[in-house]
Specification:
about 325 residues; alpha/beta; 2 domains
């Protein structure tokens, strides 16, 4: 039986990094820097808007995809499928994936494209979809899956929390269809959701129900909105059980996981979860100290980091655990 495996990774973040003190001075806002750095783990981030760089979601996604294609060493024209996972699109329509295809392949092709919005679990969900599509379709030899985030474009002036946490970035992987006798490849995934939590945090204006109007702008009902406080212990409770469900489904013991990457939202939470799972910190990768929180981009960016710094070797069991607003959850297990 055929399957898909990762043969290339890429990452992109716009401009030079912005440290905490520099950013808060730039914006004339205050935040608990000690907590931000020591507990959450964020020391700097990349923001196109604050650096005056005219780049947005599709630009980030294209550059990450190009880097992954170069890393894989394949002809860009050989890609049969582009999927972009994001909840911060450059446009409501047309989608980001078709724009990435146009920039990379430059003409009409028999190439499939679609966007996937599963909040910060978008990359994992897109990866799961792409791998399953490739396993069943011999015509899909190569696919590019991108996770990208441009939340700073939606943060309102004066939002200290939003500016402290969210940042710009994208990560991408190239998938190749391969046969079952190849030790590398996608093993399986587990999706989960709770749609009753749709009204906690999000970008609610600009869609069909709440179009942008002068009245809505004047009242501040636009951009990123925090409507209800998120449970502080949600991921500590969720992630260990999700890892258990994923490994059970894939017939792998938790102790057999060689590397595991979580949504990069909080350093302390990741350390706590690793302790609950009984896994040493050497088996995870954290990048929030340098990149801030990049939503759907953070897992492929961290995966690229792990791959290019020698943390992963062929045959390693790698788990990817993602959760985000909405409430979307997606986990994946693959053999490197």
């Amino acid at each position: 039986m055929a399957k898909a495996k990762i043969i290339g990774t890429g990452s992109y973040a716009p401009g030079t990094p912005i440290g905490n003190e520099e950013m808060f001075k730039m914006l004339n806002i205050e935040f608990d820097i000690a907590k931000l750095e020591q507990k959450i783990g964020i020391k700097q981030r990349h923001m196109a808007k604050l650096r005056g760089i005219e780049e947005y979601t599709t630009d980030f996604a294209t550059k990450a995809a190009e880097a992954a294609i170069a890393n894989a060493g394949i002809d860009p024209m050989a890609v049969n499928l582009f999927i972009v996972g994001t909840d911060t699109p450059q446009h409501l329509s047309p989608g980001s994936a078709v724009m990435v295809q146009g920039r990379i392949q430059g003409k009409e092709m028999l190439t499939g494209c679609f966007d996937l919005n599963a909040s910060c679990a978008g990359f994992n969900t897109a990866l799961d979809a792409a791998c399953k599509m490739m396993a069943s379709d011999p015509g899909l030899q190569y696919a590019v899956v991108v996770g990208v985030y441009n939340m700073p474009a939606f943060i309102k002036p004066g939002d200290a929390f939003g500016h402290a946490i969210f940042s710009d970035g994208a990560g991408a992987v190239v998938l190749q269809r391969t046969e079952d006798d190849d030790i590398s490849g996608y093993v399986g995934g587990q999706l989960m959701s709770d749609g009753t939590q749709w009204d906690y945090i999000g970008i609610y204006a600009g869609g069909a129900k709440y179009p942008i109007t002068h009245e809505r702008l004047d009242s501040g009902e636009y951009g990123l909105q925090n409507l209800k406080p998120l449970p502080g212990d949600r991921n500590v409770k969720l992630w260990p059980s999700l890892v258990e469900q994923l490994t059970k489904k894939c017939n792998v013991a938790i102790g057999d996981i060689d590397h595991i990457i979580f949504t990069q939202i909080n350093k302390t939470v990741i350390e706590t979860v690793m302790g609950i799972l009984g896994l040493p910190l050497e088996k995870t990768t954290m990048i929030m100290d340098r990149y801030g929180y990049t939503g759907s981009g953070c897992i492929p960016m961290a995966l690229h980091e792990a791959a290019t710094t020698g943390k992963l070797k062929r045959g390693d069991k790698v788990a990817l655990i993602a959760s985000g607003a909405g409430f979307f959850v997606a986990s994946s297990l693959l053999t490197w």
